[in-house]
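call fold(seq) -> tokens
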Amino acid sequence: MKWRQTFRDRFFTLLFPVIFLLILPIACAAQGKIVFVGDTGICVINPDGTNQTCLTDGISNDKEPAFSRDGGKIVFVSDRTGNPEIYTMNADGTNQTRLTYNGGNFNYNEAYPSFSPDGGKIVFSAAPINGYFDIYVMNANGTNQINLTNTVGLSEFPVFSPGANKIAFSFNKQIYVMNADGTNRTALTNVPNARSLAPSFSPDGSNIVFQMSPPDNGFDIYVINADGANQTRLTYLASQKTFATKPVFSPDGNKIAFTNFNLDLQINVMNADGTGITPLVAGYDASWSGQTTTAAPKLKIAGGNLLVGSPGQGIILKSPDGATCKLLSIDNAGAMVLAAVACP
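ret:
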């Protein structure tokens, strides 16, 4: 009947804007924010350079900020109590909380913290009295600190893989990966007389971007497969006596932010293939919110269409925990049907 067709048309005319509005925040969130160290402390900015907001006062030496995967927290290092200690704060700068206490030992430094993908752990570097940096992991509240490396040398710049099963780091100025429990350490780079530092995984975990000093001195940005294959140089700034350092991927993996140090420190953004280098803001130590996430959720429609008026075909709605799914469809009488189905 005509009224049924009219009802169906109006229902789906309203449904499409609703779906769009539900997806829009996800798409916007996927762009993330960039946190960095500016002239007035730790600041955040949109990837297009708009809406810069500073979160710390710049009086103390606050540095090395890193976002949690969901963008809700920032971990950083500060010497506001005299020594470099690890702190966390909310993404708006509130609730600044000290996590580590080194007892006034000025030979002890903590550096380069970053979150695990689920936000429950923090991995960082620390140098006790012997002066050698090791990789540590602790709970996100600062408890249960565990030394993962226990080696004589410099273990620095640790970061979790997106799957949380690996940690990439720099050991004696070469890039390594190891299991999240510290076992099975494997060198990915072995370039004589070069310094390879500051690794960071791509969102899908397939690549690692890092800085390396090439033959013409300075530093440039390189990318390598997560298994060490296919090392590729992305920038050629060192020949201009410029240091390109601390690279990080955007949440979608299409961009890389890094610090460009010539006469001034500046955050630059470029395409993941090294093209289109664009200055963003004065500062250093960039971290992109969501840098270790997988791809943003997408609306999945069977066969590429919304199928209307055919029993058993329609839109699958999934609960937030992924355990329950319902199929929304329309039967031949024009009535909406909501039925439990197995989740895809």
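Confidence is low (pLDDT under 50) at residues 16-29, 291-301, 306-312.
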